[in-house]
Amino acid sequence: MADRNPAPDTPELRERWGAFEFTESYRERADKAIARYPEGRQRSAVMPLLDLAQRQVGEETNTQGWLPLPVIEYVADYLDMPVIRVLEVASFYFMYNMKPVGKYHVQVCGTTPCMLRGSDSLFETCKKRGMSKGHVSDDGLWTLTEVECMGNCATAPMVQINDDNYEDLTPERLDAILDELAAGKQPKTGTQIEGKRTSEPEGGPTTLKDMVGANHDYRGEW
């Protein structure tokens, strides 16, 4: 699993990120997120603000983004919160990266349904491309993380890469996705089985077949 400890607080870290602040665009989005909450509850916006901060760091570093400690302190100050409270949130949820990551954060589900459907072979596919868990690859493109269930058990095995899910994977299908990403292209997201739309069985649905083309009312037939 991913290391949830923050990166060491070094002079180099302070020099690079100590002056971090939201750009005008990100500030507008942050203030909009805060405005969703009633007076006195603005600290409830800590999760969207951490996400925005991570995305801005990602844009500045051409990576998927992470949360250096000075950035966490900035979010705490923005919301008038104790830094430790913001750090607790950032280190608890896996959507936040506590260490630098590559341009593409490859998160492979290793929970039982995905493991039974071949997730071990997906880790091997990543390893052959120079990825190792918790590290940025030498070319700066990839970071590999093993994660727990992400809710796609019916289309296992699956991988989340940055904001997108790729499902019904085989080593060959994952290789093709990674090739496209490395070439700067956007692969097809969701299921990777040709002709399959969502989580229906391969070959099409076996029940409620009339629902495929229309909102069929079955109640009179029961």
From TrEMBL:
List the taxonomic lineage: Bacteria, Pseudomonadati, Pseudomonadota, Alphaproteobacteria, Sphingomonadales
Tell me the PANTHER family matching this sequence. NADH DEHYDROGENASE [UBIQUINONE] FLAVOPROTEIN 2, MITOCHONDRIAL, NADH DEHYDROGENASE UBIQUINONE FLAVOPROTEIN 2, MITOCHONDRIAL
Q: Which InterPro entries match?
A: NuoE-like, NuoE_dom, NuoE_N, Thioredoxin-like_sf
Its keywords, alphabetically, are: 2Fe-2S, Iron, Iron-sulfur, Metal-binding
Pfam families reported for this sequence:
2Fe-2S_thioredx
Q: Which SUPFAM superfamilies match?
A: Thioredoxin-like
- Kindly list the cofactors needed: [2Fe-2S] cluster
Q: Which CDD domains match?
A: TRX_Fd_NuoE
UniProt record similarity statement: Belongs to the complex I 24 kDa subunit family.
What protein name does the entry list? NADH-quinone oxidoreductase subunit NuoE
User: Which species is listed as the source?
Assistant: Qipengyuania citrea
| Residue numbers spanned by region Disordered | 185-222
